[in-house]
Amino acid sequence: ACPVFGQFGSAYVFSGPLPEGLQQSYSRHHLFNGREFVPHNLSAVGSPNHADLVILDHCSVVFDGVFYDDIPLLYDLVIDQLVTIHPDRKVEIYLEKHLVDWFSIQGDQFVRIAEDQSELPSGFYQLVYQGETYTCYAKRSKEARRYSSGTTLEYRFFETVTYYLQVGDDPFRTIKSQKELLSLDDEHRRAIRRML
């Protein structure tokens, strides 16, 4: 069977078998030219990462137009950066953001929207849903805030999610909550809920 390509900006999402040799189109070392990742030095409760995950194997990324599978990835929501592990030096490094088109971590798909692609601010967006009539993205971010509980003062990571919905070729509109998003489309509610 042929792979199915769904285009989101310049990013291609693949389902089905990939053409043989696609992962080897470049040396895998082309992927590992970024600078070393410096973890947050703030002692805070929680994690700065997407879904509070540590770096995971078996992720996928389209980097500089080439699909790579079984890549270890971590998505830092505080700085909106994708991180991997250098296979030889065993250190965490940034993936050059402007070369990342699309990535998947534990089934969650993200696309990079460039400044000239959309009215949305540039950065990584989770693809929540794409149907015939509309597309929905979620912009996820985290920040460390001071949190007081009784006599304890600590920092905690808090996540903010903003949804953007585009119907046809209309401009994106901001959706303030999951409840509002789910109320828009009864027919596809179950599929949308699975993606959230």
Give a short summary of the structure.
By secondary structure, the protein is mainly beta.
Average pLDDT metric: 81
Poorly predicted residue ranges = 1-19, 21-26
Structural class category: mainly beta
* Individual helix count: 2
Determine the fraction of residues in helical runs and give it as a percent range: under 10%
Q: What profile does the largest beta sheet have?
A: 11 strands, mixed
- What is the distance, rounded to the nearest whole angstrom, between the alpha carbons of the first and last residues? 29 Å
**Topology as a string of helices (H) and strands (E):** EEEEEEEEEEEEEHH
Please compute the radius of gyration using only Cα atoms: 18 Å
- The shape is globular
The count of DSSP E runs of length 2 or more, i.e. the number of strands, is: 13
Strand content: over 45%
Structure description:
The protein has 196 residues and is mainly beta. 7% of the residues lie in helices and 48% in strands. The protein is built from 2 helices and 13 strands; from the N terminus they run βββββββββββββαα. The strands form 2 sheets. Strands 3, 4, 5, 6, 7, 8, 9, 10, 11, 12 and 13 form an 11-stranded mixed sheet that branches. The chain has a two-stranded antiparallel sheet with strand order 1-2. The two termini are 29 Å apart. 24% of the residues are buried.
